[in-house]
Design a protein that fits this description.
With about 230 residues, this protein is α+β, with helices and mostly antiparallel strands. The chain has one domain: Jelly Rolls, CATH 2.60.120. The chain contains 5 helices and 15 strands. A hairpin with a 2-residue loop joins strand 12 and strand 13. The longest helix is centred in the middle third of the chain and has 24 residues. The chain is globular and about 50 Å long.
Length: about 230
Protein backbone atom coordinates (compact mmCIF):
# COMPACT_ATOMS: atom_id res chain seq x y z
CA UNK A 1 0.00 0.00 0.00
CA UNK A 2 1.33 3.42 -0.88
CA UNK A 3 0.47 7.07 -0.58
CA UNK A 4 -1.11 7.09 -4.04
CA UNK A 5 -3.69 4.47 -3.09
CA UNK A 6 -5.49 6.90 -0.77
CA UNK A 7 -7.85 9.71 -1.72
CA UNK A 8 -6.15 12.33 0.44
CA UNK A 9 -8.49 15.12 -0.64
CA UNK A 10 -11.48 13.13 0.64
CA UNK A 11 -9.57 12.25 3.80
CA UNK A 12 -8.79 15.93 4.45
CA UNK A 13 -12.44 16.88 3.96
CA UNK A 14 -13.64 14.21 6.42
CA UNK A 15 -10.94 15.06 8.98
CA UNK A 16 -11.83 18.75 8.78
CA UNK A 17 -15.53 18.08 9.20
CA UNK A 18 -15.66 15.14 11.59
CA UNK A 19 -12.17 14.73 13.06
CA UNK A 20 -11.60 11.33 11.46
CA UNK A 21 -11.38 9.75 8.02
CA UNK A 22 -11.22 6.28 6.51
CA UNK A 23 -8.05 5.64 4.53
CA UNK A 24 -9.42 2.38 3.16
CA UNK A 25 -8.07 -1.18 3.52
CA UNK A 26 -4.33 -1.27 4.24
CA UNK A 27 -3.68 -4.79 5.61
CA UNK A 28 -4.49 -8.13 4.00
CA UNK A 29 -6.03 -11.01 5.92
CA UNK A 30 -2.69 -12.89 6.19
CA UNK A 31 -0.99 -9.73 7.49
CA UNK A 32 -3.73 -9.18 10.07
CA UNK A 33 -3.62 -12.78 11.26
CA UNK A 34 0.18 -12.75 11.51
CA UNK A 35 0.08 -9.71 13.81
CA UNK A 36 -2.61 -11.28 16.00
CA UNK A 37 -0.72 -14.59 16.16
CA UNK A 38 2.40 -12.77 17.38
CA UNK A 39 0.59 -11.11 20.30
CA UNK A 40 1.99 -13.63 22.80
CA UNK A 41 5.56 -13.35 21.50
CA UNK A 42 7.02 -11.03 24.12
CA UNK A 43 10.24 -10.52 22.16
CA UNK A 44 8.32 -8.30 19.71
CA UNK A 45 7.41 -5.73 22.36
CA UNK A 46 9.01 -3.22 24.70
CA UNK A 47 6.09 -2.86 27.12
CA UNK A 48 2.92 -4.75 28.15
CA UNK A 49 0.12 -2.68 29.70
CA UNK A 50 -2.88 -4.16 31.51
CA UNK A 51 -5.34 -1.30 31.51
CA UNK A 52 -7.20 -2.08 34.74
CA UNK A 53 -4.00 -1.60 36.77
CA UNK A 54 -3.74 2.02 35.63
CA UNK A 55 -7.42 2.97 35.52
CA UNK A 56 -7.35 3.11 31.73
CA UNK A 57 -10.23 0.64 31.30
CA UNK A 58 -10.07 -3.14 30.88
CA UNK A 59 -8.07 -5.11 28.36
CA UNK A 60 -4.41 -5.02 27.45
CA UNK A 61 -2.04 -3.57 24.92
CA UNK A 62 1.61 -3.92 23.95
CA UNK A 63 4.03 -1.40 22.46
CA UNK A 64 6.22 -2.82 19.72
CA UNK A 65 9.99 -2.66 20.12
CA UNK A 66 12.34 -1.42 17.43
CA UNK A 67 12.83 -2.74 14.83
CA UNK A 68 9.11 -2.75 14.13
CA UNK A 69 7.50 -5.69 12.27
CA UNK A 70 7.79 -5.17 8.52
CA UNK A 71 4.11 -4.39 7.77
CA UNK A 72 3.88 -2.01 10.75
CA UNK A 73 7.00 -0.09 9.77
CA UNK A 74 5.97 0.04 6.11
CA UNK A 75 2.51 1.37 6.94
CA UNK A 76 3.87 3.97 9.34
CA UNK A 77 6.20 5.30 6.64
CA UNK A 78 3.62 5.09 3.84
CA UNK A 79 0.83 6.92 5.67
CA UNK A 80 2.91 9.67 7.25
CA UNK A 81 3.55 11.95 4.20
CA UNK A 82 -0.14 12.38 3.36
CA UNK A 83 -1.01 12.96 7.00
CA UNK A 84 1.85 15.47 7.35
CA UNK A 85 0.33 17.65 4.63
CA UNK A 86 -2.96 17.72 6.54
CA UNK A 87 -1.17 18.35 9.84
CA UNK A 88 0.65 21.35 8.37
CA UNK A 89 -2.56 22.71 6.89
CA UNK A 90 -4.16 22.45 10.33
CA UNK A 91 -1.24 24.28 11.93
CA UNK A 92 -1.57 27.05 9.37
CA UNK A 93 -5.34 27.33 9.92
CA UNK A 94 -4.78 27.72 13.67
CA UNK A 95 -2.05 30.33 13.23
CA UNK A 96 0.72 28.08 14.55
CA UNK A 97 4.33 28.47 13.43
CA UNK A 98 5.55 24.88 13.78
CA UNK A 99 5.66 22.66 10.70
CA UNK A 100 6.08 18.92 10.45
CA UNK A 101 8.68 17.37 8.12
CA UNK A 102 7.61 15.61 4.95
CA UNK A 103 9.17 12.25 5.90
CA UNK A 104 8.59 10.14 9.02
CA UNK A 105 12.30 9.57 9.63
CA UNK A 106 12.82 13.33 9.98
CA UNK A 107 9.95 13.50 12.48
CA UNK A 108 11.50 10.69 14.51
CA UNK A 109 14.89 12.44 14.48
CA UNK A 110 13.22 15.41 16.18
CA UNK A 111 11.67 13.14 18.77
CA UNK A 112 14.82 11.15 19.50
CA UNK A 113 17.00 14.26 19.69
CA UNK A 114 14.84 15.53 22.56
CA UNK A 115 14.57 12.28 24.49
CA UNK A 116 11.46 10.75 22.88
CA UNK A 117 13.02 7.53 21.65
CA UNK A 118 10.55 4.79 22.60
CA UNK A 119 8.44 3.38 19.72
CA UNK A 120 4.72 4.01 20.05
CA UNK A 121 2.99 1.67 17.53
CA UNK A 122 0.93 -0.79 19.56
CA UNK A 123 -1.46 -3.73 19.38
CA UNK A 124 -4.54 -3.80 21.61
CA UNK A 125 -6.53 -6.83 22.76
CA UNK A 126 -10.07 -6.77 24.21
CA UNK A 127 -12.19 -9.62 25.55
CA UNK A 128 -15.77 -9.71 26.89
CA UNK A 129 -16.37 -6.80 29.26
CA UNK A 130 -13.21 -4.93 28.21
CA UNK A 131 -13.20 -1.27 27.18
CA UNK A 132 -10.84 1.67 26.77
CA UNK A 133 -11.53 4.97 28.53
CA UNK A 134 -11.49 8.20 26.55
CA UNK A 135 -7.91 9.43 26.24
CA UNK A 136 -5.23 11.10 24.12
CA UNK A 137 -1.89 9.58 23.04
CA UNK A 138 0.55 12.44 23.65
CA UNK A 139 3.75 10.92 25.15
CA UNK A 140 5.91 14.08 25.27
CA UNK A 141 6.40 17.62 23.93
CA UNK A 142 6.70 16.46 20.29
CA UNK A 143 3.17 15.50 19.22
CA UNK A 144 2.22 14.71 15.63
CA UNK A 145 -1.47 15.72 15.48
CA UNK A 146 -2.86 12.67 13.64
CA UNK A 147 -2.81 8.94 14.34
CA UNK A 148 -4.29 5.80 12.80
CA UNK A 149 -6.17 2.73 14.06
CA UNK A 150 -6.57 -0.49 12.04
CA UNK A 151 -8.92 -3.36 12.87
CA UNK A 152 -7.09 -6.70 12.87
CA UNK A 153 -10.00 -8.97 13.83
CA UNK A 154 -12.67 -10.30 11.49
CA UNK A 155 -15.98 -8.42 11.58
CA UNK A 156 -17.85 -11.41 13.08
CA UNK A 157 -15.19 -12.12 15.74
CA UNK A 158 -16.77 -9.85 18.36
CA UNK A 159 -19.81 -7.77 19.29
CA UNK A 160 -19.75 -4.36 20.92
CA UNK A 161 -16.33 -2.74 21.15
CA UNK A 162 -17.18 0.29 19.02
CA UNK A 163 -14.46 2.87 18.35
CA UNK A 164 -15.63 6.19 19.82
CA UNK A 165 -14.40 9.76 19.29
CA UNK A 166 -15.54 12.79 21.29
CA UNK A 167 -15.12 16.41 20.26
CA UNK A 168 -15.13 19.20 22.85
CA UNK A 169 -15.94 22.62 21.43
CA UNK A 170 -15.46 25.80 23.49
CA UNK A 171 -18.39 26.49 25.83
CA UNK A 172 -20.38 23.59 24.35
CA UNK A 173 -21.14 20.02 25.36
CA UNK A 174 -19.12 17.20 23.79
CA UNK A 175 -20.12 15.72 20.44
CA UNK A 176 -19.69 11.95 19.93
CA UNK A 177 -18.90 9.92 16.81
CA UNK A 178 -19.08 6.11 16.70
CA UNK A 179 -16.76 4.84 13.97
CA UNK A 180 -17.35 1.44 12.36
CA UNK A 181 -14.15 -0.28 11.22
CA UNK A 182 -13.93 -2.99 8.58
CA UNK A 183 -11.22 -5.67 8.90
CA UNK A 184 -7.90 -4.24 7.68
CA UNK A 185 -9.33 -0.73 7.34
CA UNK A 186 -7.31 2.25 8.56
CA UNK A 187 -9.00 5.26 10.14
CA UNK A 188 -7.05 8.45 10.80
CA UNK A 189 -8.12 10.84 13.55
CA UNK A 190 -6.91 13.79 15.59
CA UNK A 191 -4.64 13.04 18.54
CA UNK A 192 -5.47 16.16 20.55
CA UNK A 193 -6.56 19.36 18.82
CA UNK A 194 -7.75 20.22 15.35
CA UNK A 195 -9.24 23.29 13.65
CA UNK A 196 -12.95 23.65 13.16
CA UNK A 197 -14.32 26.33 10.89
CA UNK A 198 -16.65 28.87 12.51
CA UNK A 199 -18.29 32.10 11.43
CA UNK A 200 -15.20 34.07 12.48
CA UNK A 201 -12.62 31.64 11.16
CA UNK A 202 -10.99 28.51 12.52
CA UNK A 203 -10.97 27.68 16.21
CA UNK A 204 -9.53 24.80 18.25
CA UNK A 205 -11.51 21.76 19.31
CA UNK A 206 -10.17 18.94 21.46
CA UNK A 207 -10.70 15.26 20.72
CA UNK A 208 -10.46 12.10 22.77
CA UNK A 209 -10.96 8.52 21.68
CA UNK A 210 -11.77 5.19 23.27
CA UNK A 211 -13.52 1.85 22.82
CA UNK A 212 -16.93 0.89 24.19
CA UNK A 213 -17.51 -2.30 26.19
CA UNK A 214 -16.94 -5.50 24.26
CA UNK A 215 -19.95 -7.79 24.64
CA UNK A 216 -18.54 -11.02 23.20
CA UNK A 217 -15.56 -12.44 21.35
CA UNK A 218 -12.10 -10.92 20.97
CA UNK A 219 -11.09 -7.66 19.30
CA UNK A 220 -7.54 -6.83 18.16
CA UNK A 221 -6.47 -3.49 16.73
CA UNK A 222 -3.22 -1.94 15.57
CA UNK A 223 -2.48 1.65 16.55
CA UNK A 224 -0.01 3.82 14.62
CA UNK A 225 1.29 6.91 16.35
CA UNK A 226 3.83 9.00 14.45
CA UNK A 227 5.73 10.55 17.35
CA UNK A 228 7.75 8.42 19.75
CA UNK A 229 7.55 8.48 23.54
CA UNK A 230 9.80 9.89 26.24
Amino acid sequence: MGDRDIDWEAARTSLDQYGYASLGPVLSEPQRRALVDEFDDEECYRSHIRMARHGFGQGEYKYFAYPLPGPVDALRHALYPGLAKIANAWEGALGGERRFPEALDEMLVRCHRDGQGKPTPLILKYGPGDYNCLHQDLYGPHVFPLQVVILLSDANAFTGGEFVITEQRPRMQSRVEVVTLAPGEAVAFAVNERPRQGKRGAYRVKQRHGVSRLKSGARFTLGLIFHDAA
